[in-house]
C-alpha cells in the first residue's frame, strides 16, 4: 500500500506497506507488478545458489526430461513471489517469523509471467511486544494464464501505527 506522509510545508515522503492495524482477516491483496522470468534470471539464480541440477540450465539435458525444456528454479519463483508481496505484507515488518506449507503445484518456465496475491488468514497482538502484532497470510503465485504454481503461508511481526521505524 503506497501513501505519502507530509514531512514539511509542501514536502512529502513516499511510504509503502501496512501497519498491523491496517490488516483485516479475509482481505486479499493482489500484488503488482508481475514479472516475466528470463533465462538470465534462472541461470544466475541457479548458479549463485550453487544448485547444480542441470534441469535448470542445460537445455540438452532438459530436452530429455518430461518437460522438454529447462525448469525455472523453484527457489527463484518462491523468492520472486515473496518479493512481490513485500510492499503489501511486510514492508513495515520487524521480521519474518516463518514460512509454512510451501507447495509447488506446477512447473514454471523461462518466458512465463508470474503474479501473486495474499489473503490475510490471522492476526493477533504480540504478547511480548506491545507495539507489534503477528500477521499470517497465504500467498499464491499464478502464471499469466491463471495456473497456480506455488502456495505458502507466511507469518510476520509487524509494527503498529506509531511504533514503526518511520514513525
Report on this model:
With 167 residues, the chain is an alpha+beta fold. The chain has a single domain (2-159), classed as Hotdog Thioesterase (Thiol Ester Dehydrase, Chain A). The chain has three helices and seven strands. The protein has helices spanning 39-48, 59-63, 74-89; strands spanning 2-8, 11-16, 28-36, 93-104, 113-125, 132-143, 148-159. A hairpin with a 4-residue loop joins strand 6 and strand 7 (148-159). The chain is elongated, with a radius of gyration of 19 Å. The mean pLDDT is 92.
Compute the number of structural domains.
Answer: 1
- Rounded average pLDDT: 92
- Strand arrangement in the largest pleated sheet: 3-5-6-7-4
Helix content: 10-25%
Proportion of β residues? Answer: 35-45%
Features:
single chain, 167 residues, alpha+beta, Thiol Ester Dehydrase, Chain A, five-stranded antiparallel sheet, two-stranded antiparallel ribbon, 3 helices, 7 strands, 19% helix, 43% strand, elongated
Question: What is this entry, summarized?
Answer:
The protein has helices at residues 39-48, 59-63, 74-89, and strands at 2-8, 11-16, 28-36, 93-104, 113-125, 132-143, 148-159. The protein is α+β, with helices and mostly antiparallel strands and 167 residues long.
Amino acid at each position: 500500500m503506497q501513501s505519502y506522509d507530509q514531512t514539511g510545508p509542501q514536502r512529502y515522503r513516499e511510504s509503502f506497506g501496512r501497519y498491523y492495524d491496517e490488516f483485516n482477516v479475509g482481505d486479499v491483496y493482489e500484488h503488482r507488478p508481475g514479472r516475466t522470468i528470463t533465462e538470465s534470471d534462472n541461470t544466475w539464480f541457479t548458479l549463485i545458489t550453487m544448485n547444480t541440477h542441470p534441469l535448470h540450465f542445460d537445455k540438452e539435458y532438459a530436452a530429455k526430461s518430461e518437460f522438454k525444456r529447462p525448469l525455472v528454479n523453484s527457489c527463484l519463483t518462491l523468492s520472486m513471489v515473496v518479493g512481490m508481496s513485500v510492499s503489501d505484507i511486510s514492508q513495515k515488518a520487524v521480521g519474518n517469523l516463518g514460512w509454512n506449507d510451501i507447495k509447488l503445484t506446477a512447473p514454471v518456465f523461462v518466458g512465463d509471467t508470474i503474479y501473486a496475491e495474499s489473503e490475510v488468514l490471522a492476526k493477533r497482538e504480540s504478547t511480548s511486544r506491545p507495539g507489534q502484532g503477528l500477521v499470517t497470510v497465504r500467498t499464491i503465485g499464478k502464471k499469466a494464464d491463471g495456473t497456480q504454481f506455488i502456495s505458502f503461508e507466511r507469518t510476520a511481526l509487524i509494527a503498529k501505527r506509531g511504533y514503526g521505524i518511520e514513525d
